[in-house]
Amino acid sequence: MKAVAIKAFGSPDGLAVIDLPTPVPAAGQVLIATEAIGVGGVDVVIRSGALAAYGFKEGHIPGGEVAGTVTAVGDGVDASWIGRRVWAATGVSGGYVEQAIAPVGETAPLPEVLSPVDAVTLGSSGVVAHFGLAHARFAPGESVLVRGAAGSIGIMAVQLAARGGADVVAVTTSSAERGERLRELGATHVLDRLGQAHAEAEAGVPAEYDVIIDVVAGAHMPTFFDRLKPNGRMVAVGIVAGPPPADFGMKLMAAFQRSMSFATFSSDTVAGSDRLAVRAEQFAKAASGELYSVVHELLPLEQAALAHHKMDAGEVFGRIVLIP
Fold first, then answer.
1. Which pLDDT score, from 0 to 100, does residue 200 have?
2. Pick from 195, 125, 194: which is nearest to 160 by CA?
3. Burial class (CB in 10 A: 0-12, 13-18, 19+), 247
4. What pLDDT shows up at residue 199?
5. What pLDDT does 53 receive?
6. Is the distance from CB of 160 to CB of 129 less than 8 angstroms?
7. 179: enclosing H helix or E strand
8. Are the beta carbons of 183 and 200 closer than 8 angstroms?
9. What angle do CA 75, 81, 85 make, to 5 degrees?
10. Helix crossing, 272-288 with 125-135: angle to 10°?
C-alpha cells in the first residue's frame, strides 16, 4: 500500500511517498480502507522536528484521523464492523496511508449522509473544541476569544461557543476576509493575530474576555493574559506556533490579584466513551446541518508535502483533506 513518511524533519519536502505491506489488525483493532485523511496542526509540528525530543524519529508516518470502510478486524472485535463506514483516530501516527490500523475503541460509525471528508474535518477538532470549552468552565452569557480561529479546532470552537450562548465570540485571524467567514459561523468581533481589530470602525470590541481558547501558543501567547477579565481562564488546546516562552507564567504572577488561570487541554485526558458520545452527537448535528465542516482543499495522498507547504504558509482556512 501507499503511505507518506517523514524522511527528514524540517521542510515539507522531507515527506516522501513509500510502499508498505498492508497491515494486519491485532487484537482490539480494525483495518480501514481510507477514503479521507485529515491533515492536522500536530502533523505539521511533528514534521517540523519541534517534537523530536519526545521520541518522534525519521520514518514516522503522520496522521491522526481517517475515515473509510472497515475491511478486517482483529481478535476480540465483533465481525459486524466489517463493511461499516467509520471515522477513526490512529493516535499521533499512522494516518497518511491507504490502509490504516485503529483501536476499535477509537472508531465511530458514520451517519449515512455524512461524508468521510466531513468526518475527518469534524471528528477530532469538534471533540477538542467541546471539551476545551468545558475545561475553561465556559458558561452561557460569558465572552470568548478564540485565538487562531481559522483552523478546524478554532472553527468548531467558534460554532460551539456561539451555540452555547456566549455573549461575545471574538476571533483572531490573519485577514478581514477570513474574519467575515468566521462571522458567518458565529463570530461577533474580528481581531488580527496580535489581538487588534482589523477595522478601526468596528465598534464594541471588548478589552477583556472571560475565556480564551488558544490554538496557537508561540511567542505572543503571554500578551493575551492581558485580555483576561478578573477570574478569566485561558486554555491552550494547540501549539501550532510552537511553545510559548519559558517564563510565560510570570505574566500571571504579576497579575496575582486578578485571579486569572491558565491550563493546557488534551482530549487524551477524556474518557474514550465520553469522546465517542460527543463525537456521535456532533456527527448527527453535522448531518442535519446544525454544525458545519469547513474544507479548505482536497488533495491526493501523494501530495501531502503540498498540503504541509500550504499549512506552513498560513493559507489554510478549515482543513485540508488527503484522498488516497
1. 55
2. 125
3. exposed
4. 61
5. 85
6. yes
7. helix 176-184
8. no
9. 140
10. 120
**Mean pLDDT in each 10-residue stretch from start to end of the chain (324 residues)?**
97 98 98 98 93 90 98 98 98 96 97 96 97 98 97 97 97 90 95 80 83 96 97 96 93 96 97 95 96 97 98 94 98
Work out whether strand 15-19 and strand 29-38 pair parallel, antiparallel, or are unpaired.
unpaired
How deeply is 193 buried, as exposed, middle or buried, from its count of CB atoms within 10 A (0-12, 13-18, 19+)?
middle
The amino acid present at 171, given as its one-letter code, is V
CA distances from 235 to 26, 148, 157, 220, 269 (A): 36, 13, 12, 15, 14
Packing angle, helices 304-312 and 41-48, rounded to 10: 90
Total Cβ atoms within 10 A of residue 230:
11
What is the number of alpha carbons within 13 Å of residue 159 lying toward its C-beta? Answer: 27
Model pLDDT, residue 54: 86
Distances in whole angstroms, Cα of residue 55 to Cα of each of 43, 52, 147: 14, 6, 29
Answering whether pTM is above 0.85, one says: yes
Strand order, beta sheet including 143-147: 189-191, 168-172, 143-147, 209-214, 228-236, 261-264
